[in-house]
Amino acid sequence: MTKRNKRITIAATALMMLGSTTTALAQQIKGSVVDKNSHETLIGAVVTIEGSKLKAITDIDGNFQLNGLKKGTYTLYINYVGYKPQRIDGVRVTDAAAEDALSIAMLPDEQQLKEVVVTAVERRSTDAAMIQVAKNSPVIVSNVSAQEISRTQETNAGEVIRRVPGVSLIDDKFVMVRGLSQRYNNVWVNGGAVPSSEADSRAFSFDIIPSSQIDNLTIVKSPSAEYPADYSGGFIIVNTKEIPTENNLTFSVGGNWNTSTVFKAFSYAKGSATDFLAFDNGLRSLRGGIDASLNKLTDAAGNKVGDNLYSLRGNGLNNDWRIKSLNPIGDLKLAASMARRWNLGGRTLGLLAALNYTNEQRTYTDMQNNLFGIYDAVNDRSNYLRYSTDDQYNNNVRLGAMLNLTFLSKDGNHKYQLKNIFNQLSTNRYTWREGVDAQSNKENSAEYYYRSRTTYNGQLTGKHTFTGDALDWSVGYAYANRRLPDRRRYLLNDMQNPGDIALHTGNDISREWTQLDEHIFSVGINDKHTFNLADWTPSLQVGGYGEYRTRQYQTRSFYYQWNPAANTLPTDFQHMDITQLLSDELYMGADKLYIFEQQQMRNNYRGHNTLGAGYLSASLPFGALGIHAGVRFEHNDMELISNTRDYEKSETSRHYRTNDLFPSVNATYKFNDQHQLRLSYGRSINRPEFREVSSSVFYDFDLASDVQGNTELKNCYVDNVDLRYEFYPSRGEIISLAAFYKNFDSPIEWTYTVAGGTNLIYSYKNAKSAVNYGLELDIRKDLSFIGLRGFSWSFNGALIKSKVKFEKGSKEEDRPMQGQSPYLVNTGLFYKNEPMQLDIALLYNRIGKRIIGVGRSEGSSASDDNARVPHSYEMPRNTIDLSVGKKWGSHWELKFNIRDLLAERVYYKQFAKVTYADGSHKTIDEISRCYKPGRNIGLQAIYKF
């Protein structure tokens, strides 16, 4: 058979198969709808055919498709809110196919924007929509849309939020707004509070929310009565997706290759069979849970030996300490999503479901991990409290799911939503350390670390529009846990015989189990009434919010022991391969190795927090001037329940109660539809968290130090002033310049103190006061005006200055606030080619030098300039990301990206300010941590049904 005949046969067969399911060959008209000025795609535009009931709605990419057509010539009508209606005549459909895909450009109708009132589903997934939201907001906000997320190929909310003006990240997941650390921010997901993802601090780990689940992300930067008062940097609102514009089913598979990890030796310890699903199946857990009773240690005759002594055998413990090796071939990323929309007699029911899975490995070798004490000015040399080199191997797994249901009434005035987001995350990490301790002993140590986190956030909400009133309500529940099952550590050193590294005491081998559970129940209601008083339309808003939060933290610690005077261990067991010694049951027993439980009940705590709030606010339009003012009352009662004795349950309760009023006023002056000026003032609060006021002590291996709370922490009160000018050149574009000032009364900071000469203790402390002020610039501009059609540019940067003040005569020094960056720069160049279905983005980010830990010294003299442990700083580095996305038809899409193209080293430093005997001064640059993260190369294929 010839090739030509073969092609004809295949084509004929395909037509016969098609004919078996359709009675007549139906054709289609397809195309895309964009803004004529900005070339942004328009989502939700309605395309109809004259004389027919057939219609289509453009999807998230602005595409539409009209099916079931016969040959002929048609007239199309395109309608979109805020744009001039468009009519296209002479669209031909033949027996073979329709004409080429249509490209329809619509002109904004500024007059219509001022007059039209629409009751429908508000779409906030596009850049243009979110800019419009920011423009019309009575408060100062910055935001990111799903469209921008798709364009930059960010993988989680942590990466997404970096694109917001004045925002930076710590550890790639904790958010800082306007140079303020994560504790000064508040986070809600879908209108409800979320638990802290960290046991030791108030922080929300944004890396737990996949970007594919986000519809938009907004940061409120000025206080307002309708928002909680507990934020000063920003109130961050993450909204997941709602009613879809079309039915679809999407699958994606992708990989990522980290240049410091892939195809190189990767060390790991024995794990459980379910580690790949981000949870431990019980291999590492205590049999019976955190409160399990273990089998006591007995001798050969079965008699109990000692108190709090337990056998390593027969208690279900994983005693395999041996290290294995593999060569990773890359990370795996899988995702699936489903969108369904039903019309139920004029009512609309929408469903969005998503699953995502990530399994990645990261290696950091030859990582410097040092800590410096007070500089030795006499001998002119650094004083090491720790000097070490780490090899760290991380396996991170994330399993996420989302299920959202939305019901919209026939008239569009009533919307009910049930939103659920679940994430299961784990980190399996092995760290090998070689170095020197503060006593100049050489040491080798290792940590076997496994952490799993479960987070769930669910809300049932309603939004109702009545004549003159807009009412919304919500009921929410959130849960988070953190499990650290069987964190194992050992230490070998040469303290007894220099140069001879060996095991010296059983206390240098430890095992620890930690469990944290937190629940949040919330309920809220808001009503906004608009008065129609002739030509004046003021509005009054009232609302209430209640929240009950409970937390329980438990830990158990065990140390290895042997009887020095009577044991049957090999004579040289302290010089044996430590992993073999600890793994072989031959060396376990009453006359060999066993474990001792160090009872530390004071490290356990429970907490309850009750928050009740009510507010009243008014929006008053006076021509070009709009004023939004209000006051919020909050009653907060935090109860901490802790033990007073280590050896038994001895609970005592302490309450931290406050009743506060928080006034706020936001004024906006509109010069015209493109230019406006904002001025705002508001008072806010920053409250300590449970862990920060508890006496619990936790040993952090990375820091090689203890972390503990401070029961005497006080609330921090903040006065906030903002001034912002905004210019909107055209739809989807913005240029804004903002100035801000914040005054802190008793700011809470993360500090470390030298205790006992060489040991560090990390904790929390109130300073007297602080000020924080700066400028922010945000630009999002289409570049067609300079002949670069399809190109757009975004820039956001901030210059920030802060100063912490202390009581007169204090040993502390005035300095920038902990966590504050003096400058932030985010910029990106984007290219979009609609006919080629091609998107390219080039992104740049840099964050200024910032204090991550405040150094202090107990007992030092205020007049001794050298008697201070230097602060720890994270140093600036440049990051460049490149992403390319290409679609083929309406089904296939391929995404390629390179993250951290420059792969510059990450540096953390301490700067010792030294004064010599002759009165001269010098600043010493000391590297506390340094590692190379490698660049990430990613590829993802997506198929959409």
Kindly list the characteristics that best describe this protein.
single chain, 945 residues, mainly beta, 5-stranded mixed β-sheet, 7 helices, 48 strands, globular, disordered N terminus
Provide an overview of this structure.
- There is one protein chain.
- The chain is mostly beta strands.
- 6% of the residues lie in helices and 54% in strands.
- The strands form six sheets. The protein has a 22-stranded antiparallel β-barrel.
- Strand 38 and strand 39 (791-805) form a beta hairpin.
- The longest helix is centred in the first third of the chain and has 17 residues, at 3-19.
- The protein is globular, with a radius of gyration of 31 Å.
- Residues 1-25, 111-122 and 859-863 have low confidence and may be disordered.
